[in-house]
Amino acid sequence: MFKIPFLDLPPLRSAGGTVRLPGSKSISNRVLLLAGLSEGTTHVHDLLDSDDTAVMLASLKELGCDLRTDTDGVLHVTGIGAQLRTADTKLFLGNAGTAMRPLTAALALLVATQGGQFELSGVPRMHERPIGDLVDALRGLGCQIECTGQEGYPPLKLTGPSALQLDQPVRVRGDVSSQFLTALLLALPLVAQDRPVVIEVVGELISRPYVFITLALLARFGIEVQQEGWQRFTIPAGSRYRSPGAVHVEGDASSASYFVALGAIAATGDPLRIEGVGHASLQGDVRFVEAAQAMGARVEQGPNWLEVRRGAWPLHGIDLDCNHIPDAAMTLAVMALYADSPTTLRNIASWRVKETDRIAAMATELQKLGAQVEEGPDWIRVHPLRDWQAASIHTYDDHRVAMCFSLTAFNGLVTPNAVSVRILDPQCVAKTFPDYFETLFEVVEAHAEDIPVITIDGPTASGKGTLADVAAHALGYVVLDSGSLYRACALAADREDIDLNDANAVAAIGANLNLSFKRGRVWLDEDDITDALRLEATGLMASQVAAHPAVRAALNQLQLNFRRLPGLVADGRDMGTAVFPDAALKVFLTASAATRAERRHKQLISKGISANIESLRQDLENRDARDKNRAASPLHPALDARMLDNSLQTIEESVELLLNWWAETRPFAAQR
Ligand SMILES: O=C(O)C1=C[C@@H](OP(=O)(O)O)[C@@H](O)[C@H](O)C1
Ligand SMILES: C=C(OP(=O)(O)O)C(=O)O
Fold it and tell me: What domains can you pick out in the chain, each with its CATH number?
């Protein structure tokens, strides 16, 4: 996950390959609750691992469920068998509607029948998301629920025991969120042992496919709800949650929408294959595929996979009632930018009470890119965009805003003046898809020259590596420690007893280096060479082989391959002058020989290696002289490099300076 304040997406050009979807949020949290209320153990495969499931899991644990994950990632949930084991607990439910609403109903009924007190709260936005219709329905049954903040909204305090009246139908409104009905359906089996319980929906039920998921999963847990249209539901007498044993969670169909759209926009060669959902899916959001097809996508599908290619281009504008796909429909609003006529999405009033007011958020952010957008209480119209502006997209702590706006980075497919897009607070995707951006980068391509590079060159021990690591981390960029490639090449040649003065022999080794970088360690073939790379002796050998033009040429391509999305910070001696001459920011980092010797000395001492500061300084000066005077790519600043002498600076100060210089090169300054 990119835990950084913003993530810049350079212009993207094409997409293709295979994506394996994370588990469905709606299925995961329903299965967890049902397993938690059941007797016995449920083995849950492919559960979503995200913020929304984390709060449900933490709640189940608090309620006394036993949770165990085995080495294959299967979660074993042993439920409480509908018997409360804790009587007084506070639960924090983040911004997960699929946790807050169903847990409210289940715990309200459990405390009513068994006694106790529960307090349920969430993030500030959760306290603005309505729950009044559910609270009213539960109060109508006799549950004691107090809204401790504002009436109709969490936080809630549930107390009991209290007498329940179950002989009349439970009435609940269905036009604000289907999750209120879902919550009652999931929880009322707790009190349907002796008599059937009837639920009547008041008003038009929205987001119906989510209720379908609820009914299907209840059936898997042994509860066959009788349904009369979308108005009346009967939970039969004698209902009891029975664990089905193993449950497999399918991929998330709402998360699939971003990749379906990606295929429709940018899969001009190989298709984009999406694994985890298909025509056999339980989730209504698979019908996003039909909307994408209407806009021009070419889609093939199997029971649990989709393959998407670009069909019509530009896409076609559509006019669609989106009530059945409320979450995935946000993706259509971004696809609309690439269409040939306006797109109108209707019947989406619920967008206003989700993670943010999504109609307002989409309108505001699309307009920042230059789009013309109209909105009404329950609709939005987006016009095609051809004259794009670079924009910094505010994400409102809404995972779907972050994910669907990533698709705007393909603007170069409809305009000659492609622009970058900045996604603020990218880690908000943690709600349902923590690795969204990593997954995206695996299946999209940019022109190499569009991928931004920062180079940091300078003499040995000037702190390039640390500065590069910290800056790359702050920007979410890839790091290239080019020195380590030379060190690895020298080490590999030395291990094969090759004379380091034999330029061609060493170059042949360099061209075939099998290096990998994993979790901060460097591997040469099967060997972890991280520590060997740092030895002074290796450094000296590296300096020797780096003087051969043939070796530098052999390692050049290897270094260019590091120019990967979303950007690169490359440190070395000729990054700005020779390898990445088009880098957007070049820094030449220096420090006095005395300072560098002192730093190296400290470093060695801290590792328990004794060293003499004077001889270190002498070595450094000799090395500087050799690097400056070698024929191939001698060490000198690029003409357009910015000079940074960090002798008197802390790392934090150098990083801040570098990031300020970087900000000056970006087009987002006006919008923060
Ligand atoms: O029951 C569910 O799993 C959901 C129902 C929908 O909410 P509404 O019924 O409030 O539209 C949907 O937007 C949400 O992401 C998940
Ligand atoms: C509306 C959403 O979430 P929640 O389950 O919190 O309602 C969503 O994921 O788009």
Answer: 6-22+250-448 (3.65.10.10), 25-248 (3.65.10.10), 451-665 (3.40.50.300)
